[in-house]
Amino acid sequence: MTLPAQPQLSPIAARDRLHFLDIVRGFAMLGIIMVNYFLIASSGAFASSSGETITQSLVHWFAEGKFYTLFSFLFGIGFIIFMNRAEARFESPRIVFVRRLVALFGFGLLHIAFIWSGDILTYYAVAGLLLLLFYKCRPTTLLIWAAVLLLASSLFSLSWMLQPNFLEGADFAAEATNTSYLISIGERFSEVAGMLSTSYTMLIPMLMMFLVGMYFVKKGLFHQMESKKKQWTRIWIVFTILFVAIQAFTIWSTWQGSSNEMSGFGAADLVSQVSGIVGSLFYMSSLAMLFLYVGKLRPLLMLIGNVGRMSLTCYLLHSMIGTFLFFDYGLGLGKMLPPAGVAAVGFSVFVLLITISTVWMKYFKYGPVEWLWRKLTYGKMDGLRGGNASANRSVVR
User: b/e map of 224-258 (b: 16 or more CB within 10 Å)?
Assistant: First the structure.
């Protein structure tokens, strides 16, 4: 008896990409850079200054908690798209996905060990395993589970805030002030235990946004977006109203002098949890409005999309650049620059990443780390070279 031939593992072709999602992913990288650079530079001169500057306030109001949430949303989208395509190609798509997550977890461990302890990749890899439980769920079921996880996240946050040491986290300052890179590696490993003990505070909100992203895909909102302008306009209107209301409440609370120590109690904590969701969906739907209605901006948006196509490479690069610029074993700018200077560096690095990714994608089909990730996932794949043929592809699928 002749056994049926096993299908070869092969990655998703570049022509099948959803370019709008690359644009959202690239834009989210800008927010991640801003938030992370303020964390990386937190041991600098501005950290000990009295009061919060307007730059810090802007980052706090409009970036913190919103862009890693947006990346979580995109991760859920990527999962459902990956599994839908993998089911048509492989006999065991779940095993392929687990291999993909194991590789991502490995990248995260290397990131922590050699670059910075403020890693997000390991969390995504762990939370991503739970998505296999929800793959076959209907859209309504996904939303119900997302609501349950939102409530659970709020309750866990409240219980954490009730502990006397709830403000203690990773000691980025100790890591930043080491003049020896080798000593900083030891400092990072010493923080891993603390990160693991509080990991549920990250994993639950992540899984919640994974499910929201899956819901959007299962509702077909990213398929033939041009034909869904009215739906996207309604989504944008709803989340714009919610975003303005929540941000107004947050800014008003700040002006009233509400302390950070009390911000996690009761309704304020729920507002904080919802703010990340609403903010991420507001930014995403706003990009959809620009993408669908302002055709002249598409060339610029596609440049940002190049960062999204190389998001894993750019994520690791921004950490390498930021730690070198701000930590004492590098240039030590964390002790020299005011908050506005840190923001300027963050934006400049984003422009640099746009330039690097645009040039790279002209000659190669994948980012270097993306290529390695695919190699580890599928075992073998086509070559890295190939160039960017986006000029001949439709940017709306």
Answer: ebeebeeebeebbeebbebbeebbeebeeeeeeee
C-alpha 101/C-alpha 131 separation (Å) is 11
Residue 215 has what pLDDT?
A: 96
What are 53-75's pLDDT values in tens digits? 788 889 989 999 899 999 999 99
CB atoms within 10 A of CB 86: 20
Show the DSSP H helices in the chain as ranges: 19-40, 54-62, 67-89, 93-114, 121-130, 139-161, 172-176, 181-197, 200-218, 229-255, 266-293, 298-309, 311-326, 339-363, 368-378
pLDDT digits (tens, 9 = 90+) for 314-339: 999 999 999 999 988 889 898 888 89
How many angstroms from the chain centroid is the CA of residue 132?
20
CA nearest neighbour of 316 among 120, 24, 22: 120
Kindly give the interhelix angle for 121-130 and 67-89, rounded to the nearest 10 degrees. 50
The dihedral of CA 171, 30, 267, 126: what is its sign? negative
Which residues in 284-307 are b (16+ Cβ under 10 Å) and which e? bbebbbebbeeeeebeebbbbbbb
Distances (CA, A) of 109 to 28, 113, 205, 261, 301: 22, 6, 21, 31, 32
Between 54-62 and 229-255, two packed helices, what is the crossing angle to 10 degrees?
A: 140
Structure tokens at 221: 């909102």
Tell me the CA distances in angstroms from 318 to 31, 110, 326, 361, one per residue in order: 12, 15, 12, 18
Bridge partners of 364? 385
pTM of the model: 0.86
* Separation between Cα atoms, residue 90 and residue 180, nearest integer Å: 47
Nearest Cα to 269, choosing from 144, 153, 146?
A: 153
Amino acid at 151: L
Residue from 238, 186, 56, 206 nearest 122 by CA: 206
Which residues contact residue 120 at a Cβ distance below 8 angstroms, ignoring those fewer than 6 apart? 68, 71, 108, 315
Instruction: Specify the DSSP class assigned to residue 379.
Output: S
Cα distance between residue 160 and residue 165, in whole Å? 9
